[in-house]
Design goal:
5-stranded mixed beta barrel, alpha/beta, single chain, 143 residues
Length: 143
C-alpha cells in the first residue's frame, strides 16, 4: 500500500479563462461571477474577464457552464444570483452535458461538474488576479 493515495485528488487553482486548456476530467478550483442560472438545466453560467481584453479587441470571454445538480440540497438562492462571485471546485466536463442550449451559451464555453461551491464574500478582484498570476508563474517556473 505504500505510495497509494487513499484521499481525494487535489484540485488545481486556475483562472476561469484557463479552463479551455484543461482536459476533461481535470479537477479544478476557480473564481467566477454568476451571469445566469437555469433552474431547468441545474446550471450556472459564470465568467471572469481576465486578462482584460485590449482596447478595441474582439476577444470573447470564457464562460464556465457549471452543473450544480449535485449541490441542489445545499445551494442557497443567493449563490445563484447574477453578480455573485463564487469559488467552485469541480471536474471539467463536456459543456454540452450541462445544458448549453438551455443557457443560451455558445462559443467559448467549458462545462464543469461542481462538487463544491461557496460565496467569495468581500474581496479585492485586482489583488486576487495579481496574487494568482504570481502563484501560477511561480509554479510554472518550478516545473
Amino acid at each position: 500500500m505504500t505510495g497509494q493515495n487513499l484521499g481525494p485528488i487535489p484540485s488545481r487553482l486556475v483562472f476561469l479563462s484557463d479552463l479551455p486548456r484543461a482536459a476533461s476530467g481535470d479537477k479544478v478550483r476557480f473564481l467566477g461571477c454568476v451571469t445566469h442560472y437555469s433552474v431547468a438545466a441545474g446550471a450556472l453560467s459564470m465568467q471572469h474577464s481576465y486578462p482584460a481584453p485590449a482596447a478595441g479587441s474582439r476577444s470573447r470571454c470564457v464562460t464556465a457552464v457549471v452543473d450544480v445538480r449535485l449541490l441542489l440540497d445545499s445551494l442557497k438562492s443567493s449563490d445563484a444570483q447574477v453578480g455573485e462571485w463564487l469559488n467552485v471546485i469541480g471536474y471539467v466536463s463536456a459543456a454540452e452535458r450541462v445544458g448549453l442550449a438551455q443557457l443560451g451559451t455558445a462559443g467559448n464555453s467549458v462545462g464543469v461538474q461542481a462538487v463544491m461551491l461557496w460565496p467569495a464574500g468581500p474581496f479585492n478582484l485586482g489583488e486576487y488576479e495579481m496574487v494568482l498570476k504570481g502563484r501560477l508563474e511561480f509554479e510554472a517556473s518550478k516545473s
